[in-house]
Amino acid sequence: MTADALAAALSGPHMSSIFRSVEPAWPHEGCGFVFADADGAVEVLPTENRAQALHERFPDRYPRGAEDWFEPDMKPWLRAVRAGGTPLVIYHSHPDVGAYFSESDHAQAVTVDEAGATVERNPGVRHLVVSVRQGRADGARLFEWAADSSSFVEVARFGAQGLRVAADVAI
Predict the structure, then answer these.
(1) For residues 132 and 19, what is the distance between their CA atoms, to the nearest angstrom?
(2) Cis peptide before 27 (omega within 30 of 0)
(3) Whether 32 contacts 17, CB under 8 Å
(4) What is the mean pLDDT of the segment spanning 14-29?
(5) 1 contacts: CB under 8 Å, gap ≥ 6
(6) 86-95/42-47 β-pairing
(7) Claim: this prediction has a pTM higher than 0.90
(8) Cα(52)–Cα(137) distance, integer angstroms
(9) What pLDDT, on a 0 to 100 scale, did the predictor assign at position 3?
């Protein structure tokens, strides 16, 4: 699915579902996935952010908590894949700092291949970052991998109503 087709599919009710799923996590990061089911229908799959539990149980190994890090519970992803679904988006929220693709987001979304090149960890899967301020989603940005720059670039923006907005609208 092209970035434009995905942005169109997410705009409106699906984006509203994503917003509703991450707002209760505030002041922590919320997260989830968007899949196309076996018939091609787009499905939003919220999941638990395991970051805080991991931090509390293993603080030396996981020094950051859920205020600024997400570690999604992968059970919904695994169920969707087993049912024939295709992953389209990994989404998470940024509490009170805006929707941007942080250095931490980049580090979590890439790996190094056999040749030593930085590549996307989940090829073809886009990343959506939702801005949540004071418990209310106020916009989101969709990012995809750009192999020529070995980074994620913004391909769409969504306003507080969950609708796609122009690239120059502040989020």
Answers:
(1) 8
(2) yes
(3) no
(4) 97
(5) 9, 36, 88
(6) unpaired
(7) yes
(8) 21
(9) 85
